[in-house]
Design a protein that fits this description.
The chain is mainly β. The protein contains four helices and 13 strands.
Length: 235
C-alpha cells in the first residue's frame, strides 16, 4: 500500500533540476512546490495529467478518489489506493483507468514494519535521491461547490526490498513510460497493465526513521532523519 509519502527534493526550487524533471514530464513550466515531508491521505497533492489540447498540466488534487457517481465525498477515505490487479474491472476505478490517468511526483514513501508490539517506520527512496512518479488515477466529482478533483495511488505486489516490510508497494512509473501512461487516447488494458509492475533492481533503499511520521501533523525534515544508534538501513 501507500499511505504516506514525501516530496522533499529541491527539484522545484533548483532551476536546472526543475527543467530536467519538467522535460521528462512533458511540461513547459510549473509553479514552485514547497517541500513536503509527511504527505497523508485526504490532503491536497500535486499531480501531472493530460489536458484537452494534448498538453500536460501540473494540478493539485485531493488524495482519496471520489468517483463522479458517488453520493458524497466520504467514499474517498477508502480510495487512497487502487490495486493494479483490479482497476480495469472495479467500478470505482475502471473509467478513470481508461481515461483519467496521472503521475504523482514524490521522492520517497513510508512503510511500517511490525516489531513485536510496535511498528518501525521506514523511508523508502532511490539511493541517488531522485524525484520519481507514482502511477495515479484522477476523478472529477461535480456535485460539490466547488466541484472536487481527487486522485488515488496505484499499488502492486512488493519487490524484494519491500517484501521485508509489506506485501504491497506503490507503482513507480519509469520516465520512459510517462507518455504512454498519460496518453488519453490509449484505453486498452493490455497496453497499460504491463506498466503497473513492482520496481525491479536494487536502486531503492529502506531507512529506519523516527516515529514522528506516525502523526501526519508532523511535517518537518526531522521525519526523514535516520534513527539514532546507527545508519538505520534495512539493507
Amino acid at each position: 500500500m501507500c499511505g504516506r509519502f514525501t516530496r522533499a527534493n529541491d527539484y522545484f526550487s533548483d532551476r536546472a533540476r526543475q527543467q530536467k524533471f519538467l522535460q521528462q514530464l512533458g511540461l513547459s513550466e510549473a509553479p514552485p512546490l514547497e517541500p513536503r515531508y509527511n504527505i497523508a491521505p485526504t490532503q491536497d497533492i500535486a499531480a501531472v495529467r493530460a489536458t484537452a489540447d494534448d498538453g500536460r498540466e501540473l494540478v493539485v488534487l485531493h488524495w482519496g478518489l471520489v468517483p463522479s457517481w458517488a453520493k458524497d465525498t466520504a467514499i474517498g477515505n477508502r480510495m487512497v489506493n487502487a490495486r493494479a490487479e483490479t482497476i480495469a474491472e472495479k467500478p470505482a476505478f475502471r473509467s478513470a483507468f481508461r481515461r483519467r490517468r496521472c503521475l504523482i511526483p514524490a521522492d520517497g514513501f513510508y512503510e511500517w514494519q511490525a516489531q513485536g508490539r510496535t511498528k518501525q517506520p521506514y523511508l523508502i527512496r532511490f539511493k541517488d535521491r531522485r524525484l520519481f512518479c507514482f502511477a495515479g488515477l484522477w476523478e472529477h466529482w461535480p456535485k460539490g461547490e466547488p466541484p472536487l478533483e481527487s486522485c488515488t495511488i496505484i499499488t502492486t505486489d512488493a519487490n524484494e526490498l519491500m517484501a521485508t516490510l509489506h506485501d504491497r508497494m506503490p507503482v513507480i512509473i519509469s520516465p520512459a513510460d510517462y507518455a504512454l501512461w498519460l496518453d488519453p487516447a490509449v484505453e486498452e488494458p493490455e497496453r497499460l497493465l504491463p506498466l503497473l509492475r513492482p520496481w525491479a533492481g536494487d536502486e531503492l533503499e529502506a531507512i529506519a526513521v523516527s516515529t514522528l511520521v506516525n502523526n501526519p501533523r508532523h511535517e518537518s525534515p526531522q521525519c526523514l532523519e535516520p534513527i539514532e544508534g546507527g545508519s538505520g538501513m534495512l539493507f
